[in-house]
Amino acid sequence: MNLKQFIIDKAKELNIDLIGFTDCEPLDDLKDYLIMRKLKNMEIEFEEKDIEKRINPKLILPSCKTIIVIAMSYNNDFNYVSEYELKGKVSRSSWGLDYHVVLEDRLEKLIMEIKKNKEFNYKYYVDTGPLIERELARKAGIGYYGKNCSIINDEYGSFIFIGYILTDIDIPINSPILGSKCGDCNLCIKACPTGALERPFRFNPKKCISYLTQTKMDIPYELREKMGTSIYGCDICQLACPKNKGVKKPNHKEFLPNKGYIDIKELLSMSNREFKKEYGSMAGAWRGKNILKRNAIIALGNIKNKNTLDLLIPLLEDASPMIREYVAWAILNIDFEFGRELVEKQLKKEENQLMKRKMENILNYYLTRIDNNY
User: What residues does the 4Fe-4S ferredoxin-type domain cover (predicted)?
Assistant: First the structure.
């Protein structure tokens, strides 16, 4: 029996869009780049800190011989007009059911099909393993790197989720895709609001809006102002990419929008239980209510509608010091003179010394801006 073809056929039956096979050799070509990122403090808190684990599959599965890589498209069209008075953006990656759950289910079913014919050792991951899955996808023939560092497939574009199985089975591998097909195009680089795409094929994740909507670290004021109304994730560079135009559309109902937008007003007043009930099935829910609530506050600060101050002012008394700090920023960003009085009153009763210093810093930031502008 041709095991590789059997796996390909079963993947198709499981409605997996793309599948490829690569070896378990270390990803040594990326080592210098990862070291550079570490030295420049460009690592993010979600990634594996041990560089060797990021590039060597055999440190994850010592008996590894072949890696099976799958991809599923989430490039759904969504023309729903939200009736929310204040709406925040959610990236396509979080429109439907949590993609981790969907792809893990596909991988588990594929593994069970393979085990009907051959017992083997394995480990599988969807965005949670230490290895650089985009490089595995490139090596497995799934796609090539775009200038925004996304993997682009000729048939489906770059809106694809990736998962992989480390196995101890010998399977003929695919040829890796070399080079890129971006040519002289740099639309993604021009489109990025924060300058996270610092040059072709190099991006600073700590400037990326998608990262900013997930991090628990302090977000610099100048980056807050460029986040727009993003509540979770960002699609800007991919939407600008011509390679995502005229591509094959997926048929995965799991990724159809449950929440194409977030009702900001509702989110600000939700309990944790209400949040889990309403948003628990989407990928973005993993970060919890308070981080998304913080992002909603940033969105209001960027909308700059004075009518939203009635939503923000009560949150100066929020139990979370982080929320109080971002509310102070948003109010000052909307109406400095009005906000200055409120923040100065808050400073007099703020008991958290760290938050007090942060609010003072925000106030000084805006005072400096005003002095520089006039």
Answer: 173-202
